[in-house]
Amino acid sequence: MPMTEQATGAHPQPRPRSGGQQSAPEHVTGAQSLIRSLEEVGAETVFGIPGGTILPAYDPLMDSSRVRHVLVRHEQGAGHAAEGYALATGKVGVCMATSGPGATNLVTAIADAHMDSVPIVAITGQVTSKAIGTDAFQEADIVGITMPVTKHSFLITDPADIPRAIAQAFHIAGTGRPGPVLVDIAKDALQAKTTFSWPPVMDLPGYRPVTKPHAKQIREAARMIASARRPVLYVGGGVIKARATAELKVLAELTGAPVTTTLTALGAFPDSHELHLGMPGMHGSVAAVTALQKADLIVALGARFDDRVTGKLDSFAPYAKIVHADIDPAEIGKNRAADVPIVGDAREVIADLVQAVQKEHSEGHQGDYTAWWKDLSRWRETYPLGYDQPADGSLSPQQVIERIGQLAPEGTIFASGVGQHQMWAAHFIRYEKPATWLNSGGAGTMGYAVPAAMGAKAGAPDRTVWAIDGDGCFQMTNQELTTCALNNIPIKVAIINNGALGMVRQWQTLFYNQRYSNTVLHSGPGADPAQPSAGTRVPDFVKLAEAMGCYAIRCESPDDLDKVIEEANSVNDRPVVVDFIVHEDAMVWPMVAAGTSNDEIMAARDVRPDFGDNEDD
């Protein structure tokens, strides 16, 4: 049996020792060896679809009492479900597909996992080893296709290599900077006879993630924190991946520095905490965006200075020294030069920083941030997050999402699609704990919410899981509701239905003279009343959801909002879909237009914050 150990910088994963007592060899097929290997590394749930080249693996899978297979309706759904499972449970997610189009349908989810550092293992069938390179039926070079978006890949043509490849894939996916690993297995390797013994010998001479930070760099970072006048803790998703949220809270309260949490880091620091300024970036809070711009020190922890946070890079945080800590040395200095680079696991980095800052304090070196907090508090109070109710009495999408969050049971996990509803869910739901917010941050993948919620619910069946989705996103992957209905995965889906591709429409409103080219999705809200089809809804999401075995409700009036949400929360024996018909012209604010400086942030339409000039000295 494998030894269980804490996977540094990511998730706890069972993994084999480099030697030790092995089990007696068993004579099996490669397919049986694959399933046994999945059992031994601790894989509990696999999301997938069978097909010709992977089919040999599905026969022994039927006999496994330790690995549950969830038959999805599209391979992209399998990949996002594996992501949701990984994020909700802290384990490596697993998806499986056949060769050719089955494998290529996984590519979007693999790329998504790569951008957001999500540990998944994608197992694909491949044509027989002799047919590789001949353009055989359903052949695709999936290793080559996914090479830019995987942490590592294996192409297996010898069945004897299967246990080692699976063990190494799980280890690589879940340690260091987490990410996706591909295991592509030729059909004849699955069919051939081999022997199976466990654990295999691990031999990864080129894979040595640095987890322990350099003490000198830690001391210098602590000195800079103690001497700064306007510091900001810029917290990225790596803090959640490293399970460093408790350490982060200690550091923040010890220093008294303000905290900003990126889109993938929501929940890393309690939203309700007095030190929390909110989310930075293109649609971040005014206080968070401005704090980074006016800071004299930014301590970046598990964050990567991506363009959505920095805006126009050469104008970002012009007064700030940078302490940048990350498990991945390639991220440090990639976008913004670091004055103090720290390579290491965020949990160890922050724990060591706490000790070093305490030493600075004991020696009488402690930052005075009184004037800084006076400015921060003024910005936070003057430009709070908010929204207006529609004048016509229709549903406000922000209010819908806010009430879903307020009425949700304790411990609810929220997954979102991509677009306006994603930003509103980031702003108007309170995230107090890690692993309660799942979304596609780096890739911005429409269609993420439903399958990710499915994976989260499969991994955490005792917790409520809400998918906050747009009507555009929902139409990309809603077929996985059938999967949920047939596999007892009762997620809840809120469709924020404004009849349009909302975020694209917002840009057309602001930058394209209200020329709404190809963003109206159906003839519901916003249709020309002179047309005979006005008022019809294509598709009718309630009928569609019911056809897939779901409990479905429509809500069009603010008067019915709480009643409908409470009704949805009360149904737990099947998936629930609520079609919220919301006002089409609601916009996401604040906003920094793409390609512009964060100094150009707009608190609302035609409202530019007035910060004065005294902060710039």
Detailed description of the structure:
Helices cover 35% and strands 16% of the residues. Helix 3 (75-89) packs across helix 18 (449-459). Mean pLDDT is 93; it is low at 1-19 and 529-534. Strand 14, helix 13 and strand 15 (321-326) form a beta-alpha-beta unit. It is globular. With 617 residues, it is α/β, with parallel strands linked by helices. The termini are far apart. The strands form five sheets. The chain has a six-stranded parallel β-sheet, with helices on both faces. Strands 13-12-11-14-15-16 form a six-stranded parallel β-sheet, with helices on both faces. The protein is built from 23 helices and 22 strands.
The N- and C-terminal alpha carbons lie at a distance of 62 Å
Structural class: alpha/beta
State the strand order across the main sheet.
Answer: 5-4-6-7-9-8
Strand residues, percent: 15-25%
Uncertain segments: 1-19, 529-534
What coarse outline follows from CA principal-axis ratios?
Answer: globular
E-strand count: 22
Discrete helix count: 23
Quote the average pLDDT: 93
Oligomer: single chain
Helix content: 25-40%
Largest sheet: number of strands, sense, barrel closure: 6 strands, parallel
